[in-house]
Amino acid sequence: MTETVLTTLVDGVLTLTLNRPEKLNSFNEEMHLALRAGIERAHSDAAVRAVLLTGSGRGFCAGQDLGDRDPRKGGPAPDLGHTLETFYNPTLRLIRNLQKPVICAVNGVAAGAGANLAFACDIVLAAKSAKFIQAFAKIGLVPDAGGTWSLARILGEPRAKALAMTAEPLMAEKAADWGLIWKAVEDEALLAEATALASQLAAGPTLGLGLTKQLIQAAATNSLDEQLDLERDCQRKAGRSRDYAEGVTAFLEKRKAEFIGE
Ligand code: LHQ
């Protein structure tokens, strides 16, 4: 049977490739579980120092597989809240809580929960031809997979509401202009550029990068006082890491630091 998520580990980069290209990598149960297993591995496997998430074929991810619950078949209405609680929400939380960088390479259309999955990642690169669509309004749903949270925080209410209510596609370059993603790159360059970035981060001071992620995420809800305290605590941890000692030693010896991630 074809694997719904292709997994490789090279030089500390765990690449997870959504792999249902004929369905634009929309999520069925199997792909949900496979993606979650990949992120769980990133949590537990010290050899993983960065994650790269991308899609195979011409799309990144078209959200939930709508064929899975065909209303024409009749029966009671599905409990979509249960689907979120069981599948999407645990994965979103795992990505946000992972103390390692998660890079997303959006290789093509990202629709519905597929778009919002990308926005949950730490650094998002997208092919210039890629577009982001809050497709939910077209099928009577609300944005999920953290979309209302990300869009409102990153874009503010006016743009978040317009994107969500119109389901108008947002092209990659505009998404970058609006600060929703890190950058839009030429289609042919996407994978190489995203892999190079992931490799660079995987060779970085993983503990410090993880703490940096934690700090920036906490800033949205912390007061300045709380954030200053948290920075103190995180810097204390970072200052005790082997990578800090190596970084300063390498600087003094005028050589490139060799971080081990601890
Ligand atoms: C698909 C899908 C798809 C199945 C393309 N399903 N086959 C959470 C809780 C529980 C349930 C509900 O959902 C959620 C969260 C969500 O994500 S809701 C939002 C679900 N996603 C959408 O509404 C997007 C649906 N797809 C589209 O609007 C279009 O396919 C886009 C705009 C993504 C791409 O358009 P095109 O480039 O024109 O491609 P296409 O439409 O021709 O799609 C290619 C194939 O992929 C096609 O199959 P076929 O056999 O005809 O070649 C589509 O049926 C299939 N596909 N999305 N979500």
Low-pLDDT sequence parts? none
Approximate helicity band: 40-55%
User: What is the topology, as strand order, of the major beta sheet?
Assistant: 1-2-3-5-7-10
Mean pLDDT: 97
Run of helices and strands = EEHEEHEEHEEHHEHEHHHH
CATH architecture of the largest domain: Alpha-Beta Complex
Number of helices: 10
Return the domain count.
2
Strand content: 15-25%
CATH topology of the largest domain: 2-enoyl-CoA Hydratase, Chain A, domain 1
User: Would you tell me the structural class of the helices and strands?
Assistant: alpha/beta
Shape: globular
Structure at a glance:
By secondary structure, this protein is α/β, with parallel strands linked by helices. It has 10 helices and 10 strands. The chain has helices spanning 29-44, 80-97, 113-119, 147-155, 157-166, 172-177, 190-202, 206-219, 224-239, 242-252, and strands at 5-10, 13-18, 50-55, 59-61, 102-106, 109-111, 123-127, 131-133, 170-171, 183-185.
Provide a descriptive summary of the structure in words.
- The protein has a six-stranded mixed β-sheet with strand order 1-2-3-5-7-10, sandwiched between helices. The protein has a four-stranded mixed β-sheet with strand order 4-6-8-9.
- The model has no long low-confidence stretch (mean pLDDT 97).
- Helices cover 46% and strands 16% of the residues.
- The longest helix has 18 residues, at 80-97.
- The chain is an alpha/beta fold and 262 residues long.
- The protein has two domains: 5-202, Alpha-Beta Complex (2-enoyl-CoA Hydratase, Chain A, domain 1); 206-252, Orthogonal Bundle (Lyase 2-enoyl-coa Hydratase, Chain  A, domain 2), CATH 1.10.12.
- It is built from ten helices and ten strands.
- β1 and β2 form a beta hairpin.
- The structure holds ligand LHQ.
- Ligand LHQ is lined by residues 23-24, 26, 62-67, 80, 83-84, 109, 111-113, 133, 135-136, 139, 141, 144.
